[in-house]
Design a protein that fits this description.
Layout (H helix, E strand, L loop, with lengths): L5 E3 L10 E2 L1 E3 L4 E9 L11 H18 L7 E9 L4 H12 L4 E8 L8 E9 L2
Parallel strand pairs: 2-6, 5-6
Antiparallel strand pairs: 1-3, 4-7, 5-7
Length: 129
């Protein structure tokens, strides 16, 4: 049985209730979820940062579920935000879908490859046996 990733928060580093400084995955299979935009099943981008962020996370959750994993097994999220997007606003949009699952997180400001995309999210997760 695969253990859930364990947060690694060294003393002396900022302790956040939202993210971990690192995540330790002891054993098992690993799933790499490719970047997910805020697109619906037809591939159309939703309107606005909140809608796109929530949909991108739902898309990540769908890939996790298909592989037999879930948000509790995610070791790392990488979140790419369009230049000028407020990271605080994007973070606020995650709560409704992602909940309080702590993981290691990297947030970057980039020029999106797809016109109109405000956010893209990828994940690395353990897959339980």
């Amino acid at each position: 049985m695969t253990a859930r990733p364990t947060p690694v928060d060294p003393p002396g580093l900022h302790a956040s209730p939202a993210f971990a400084q690192g995540m330790l995955v002891e054993q098992g299979r690993t799933l790499y979820v490719g970047g997910q935009n805020g697109t619906n099943a037809e591939g159309a981008l939703l309107d606005g940062l909140q809608a796109q962020t929530e949909q991108a996370l739902r898309n990540v959750l769908a890939v996790l579920a298909e592989a037999g994993s879930g948000p509790e097994y995610v070791a790392k999220l990488t979140i790419y935000l369009a230049v000028g997007v407020d990271p605080g606003e994007a973070y606020a949009a995650t709560g409704a879908v992602w909940g309080t699952h702590r993981t290691a997180v990297t947030v970057l400001s980039v020029t999106p490859a797809r016109a109109g995309a405000l956010v893209e999210i990828e994940a690395v997760a353990a897959v339980p046996d």
